[in-house]
Structure formats: structure tokens, C-alpha cells
């Protein structure tokens, strides 16, 4: 916790600039101007579309462009939306894509009816690590700083899992391990998601996985190698040996579910892997601000909570995504902490865990 006290909200007022393309009402004024906007969008995101596909997807794109513009000009939301590389996809396409579905099973099924953890998954032998619930609960949160942002110290650059690989679980777990390793060693080392995709047989590579089983693999494998020694390919391949010093962890803990103070306490100490809902139209078109809209209907995505704070839009979690730096606020989303339901906005309070490193 002492280390976290040094990482307060100095950077919160300077969130990364949104990176979707800008447009005005003049771009929506006619079929010709909308088609020009679509061509500009295709070039910006390097989207290869043949004539037939462009004709079909143009209708989707122009409807999305109009909906986004209407949302942004209503003036009563704490977040904005923007055109991004998902803007000519149907809801069903996105929901079934590796971006929208990359956890192997609904993690909520692993909770008992009253919301308690059914078991504590951890590898530690030292009795001092045997906590009933990770994060310390509401009492520990009373000592947490009002704002924390691990970016710049314990968070590597935003990465991209790619359109064809459902590996969000690996990116979420790796970001959490990168974080605790940087905190313990004072060295921020990007680590290899591809090693998990290829070698973690308890998970399913590009067909999904879970962060907790990824942590288990890293423990049993005696570490995970740096990204440069085992580079990401966006597809599953044969597991290979990499000759590089691995980064190790000693196990992991789970955060008490449905407890915002418990998650706050955990994030105050280190980046935390979280499962979220992310298949809704509003979430995938998020551009900036404090998101409080529709996230989706299931915990199908994984990301990493790397801080929290508050501004004029209200209190929020800072969440690192794996959809590349041209989504959201430079690859991040600020999810509202003002939750009307116990699972939190986007289900962020339902299932979270973090690696332990002595």
C-alpha cells in the first residue's frame, strides 16, 4: 500500500486524447458526404473492402455515424462516442467476434448464490499469503488514496489482441503481472501474451481463456518471458522454448466480488485483472469520458483496472483494454463507479483477481 500512496492522481486531469476520426453534421448531410466519410474511415483504419462488401456495410456505417452524432449532441451524457474500426459491423458480428467473446465461460457461474468466492485459487505455500478474500475489503479501502493511476510506472503501452484472436484473457493477465513485477522490481518489462496463447493448455488460446488459469500457468511454468523473446502473432501456434529470463509470480488472489471498496483497495496496491461486459454498441463505440452506458449482457471480455479517480463526470475506474490505442482514450476506458447494480457498471465488480509476487 505504501507504494501505491506515491501513485496518486497527477495524471488524471490529462487523459489520453481520443483517437477516432472526427466528423461534423456536414458529413451527414447527404449520401455523397456520408460515402466520402466512409471512404475516409476505411483509409484511416486500413479496412480492405471489396465493392460488394462496401455496399453492404455502408448502410451499417452511416446509421452508426448518425447515432454517434446524436448521442454526442444530446449534451446530457458523461461520455462521448466515436467512429472506430467496429463502426461497420453488426451487433451480432461483434458479439460473436474474438473481440466480443474471449472468456471461455461465464465467470459468474463460479460464484455461489450469495456472491462469495466458492474457493480461493492460489499457489502460495506461505501461510502469510492465505487471506480469505483478496483486496482487504471495505475496511482496507478506508486507507486507500482518493485516486490512483499506475500508468507511467507499472503499466506498459496499450496492446492489440487483433481481430482474429480471442486472447483478451492473456492480455488482462499479462498486464496485471507486468504491474506487480514493476512494483516489486522497479523495472517495467512488457511480457509475452503469445506464450500464454501457445503454451497454456488449461486455456484455449485464441478461442478464449481465464485470467486465473493464466496465473496458474505462469506459476507452474516458473515464469513468463519478455514480449521481445516471444512476440505476439495474433494466432495460436506451437509452444516453443524462449531463451530469456522469465518474470515469475508466486500465485494469485481473488477480490471479494460485488464490493467496490475491495476492488479499490486491490487497485490501490497494483493493477488488477477484471472481467467485464463489452459487447454492447455503446461500449464498443466509446471515445472518452466516464462511461455509464450499456456495456452488454454477459461477462465475455477481460481487461485490467489500473487506477481510479473522479472528475466532473463522477468517480471512475481506469481500465486498460486490449483493442489497440485507437480505441477509447488512447486504448483506455474510464468506467463509472456510480453503479446502480451490485455487479457494477459493465459487471466490473463481479470477477477480478491479481497476481502475488513476494
From TrEMBL:
Name of the featured protein: Cysteine protease
The keyword Flavoprotein appears for this protein: no
The entry's keywords: Disulfide bond, Signal, Zymogen
The species this protein was found in: Miscanthus lutarioriparius
Domain of life according to the entry: Eukaryota
Gene Ontology molecular-function annotations: cysteine-type peptidase activity
Domain Cathepsin propeptide inhibitor, residue spans: 38-94
Coiled-coil region: none
Annotated signal sequence range: 1-20
Domain Peptidase C1A papain C-terminal residue range list: 144-356
Pfam families linked to this entry: Inhibitor_I29, Peptidase_C1
Cited InterPro entries: Papain-like_cys_pep_sf, Pept_asp_AS, Peptidase_C1A, Peptidase_C1A_C, Peptidase_C1A_papain-like, Prot_inhib_I29
GO biological process, one term: proteolysis
Similarity section: Belongs to the peptidase C1 family.
Amino acid at each position: 500500500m505504501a507504494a501505491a500512496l506515491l501513485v496518486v492522481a497527477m495524471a488524471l486531469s490529462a487523459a489520453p486524447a481520443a483517437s477516432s476520426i472526427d466528423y461534423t453534421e456536414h458529413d451527414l448531410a447527404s449520401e455523397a458526404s456520408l460515402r466520402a466519410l466512409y471512404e475516409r474511415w476505411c483509409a484511416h483504419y486500413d479496412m480492405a473492402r471489396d465493392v460488394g462488401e462496401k455496399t453492404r456495410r455502408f448502410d451499417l456505417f452511416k446509421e452508426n455515424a448518425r447515432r454517434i452524432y446524436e448521442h454526442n449532441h444530446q449534451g446530457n451524457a458523461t461520455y462521448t462516442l466515436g467512429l472506430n474500426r467496429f463502426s461497420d459491423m453488426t451487433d451480432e458480428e461483434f458479439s460473436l467476434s474474438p473481440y466480443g467473446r474471449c472468456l471461455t465461460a461465464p465467470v459468474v457461474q463460479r460464484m455461489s448464490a450469495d456472491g462469495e468466492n466458492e474457493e480461493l485459487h492460489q499457489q502460495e505455500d506461505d501461510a502469510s499469503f492465505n487471506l480469505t478474500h483478496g483486496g482487504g475489503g471495505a475496511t482496507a479501502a478506508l486507507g486507500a488514496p482518493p485516486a490512483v493511476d499506475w500508468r507511467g510506472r507499472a503499466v506498459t503501452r496499450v496492446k492489440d489482441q487483433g481481430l482474429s484472436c480471442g486472447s483478451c484473457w492473456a492480455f488482462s493477465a499479462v498486464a496485471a503481472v507486468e504491474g506487480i513485477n514493476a512494483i516489486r522490481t522497479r523495472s517495467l518489462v512488457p511480457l509475452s501474451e503469445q506464450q500464454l496463447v501457445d503454451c497454456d493448455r488449461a486455456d484455449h488460446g485464441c478461442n478464449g481463456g481465464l485470467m486465473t488459469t493464466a496465473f496458474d500457468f505462469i506459476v507452474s511454468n516458473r515464469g513468463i518471458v519478455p514480449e521481445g523473446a516471444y512476440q505476439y502473432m495474433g494466432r495460436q501456434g506451437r509452444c516453443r522454448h524462449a531463451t530469456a529470463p522469465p518474470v515469475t509470480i508466486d500465485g494469485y488472489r481473488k477480490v471479494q466480488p460485488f464490493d467496490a471498496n475491495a476492488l479499490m483497495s486491490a487497485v490501490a496496491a497494483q493493477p488488477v485483472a477484471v472481467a467485464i461486459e463489452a459487447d454492447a454498441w455503446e461500449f464498443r463505440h466509446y471515445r472518452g469520458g466516464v462511461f455509464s452506458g450499456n456495456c452488454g449482457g454477459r461477462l465475455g471480455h477481460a481487461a485490467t483496472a489500473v487506477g481510479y479517480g473522479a472528475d466532473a463526470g463522477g468517480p471512475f475506474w481506469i481500465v486498460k483494454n486490449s483493442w489497440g490505442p485507437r480505441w477509447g482514450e488512447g486504448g483506455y476506458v474510464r468506467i463509472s463507479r456510480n453503479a446502480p447494480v451490485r455487479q457494477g457498471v459493465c459487471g466490473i465488480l463481479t470477477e477480478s483477481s491479481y497476481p502475488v509476487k513476494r
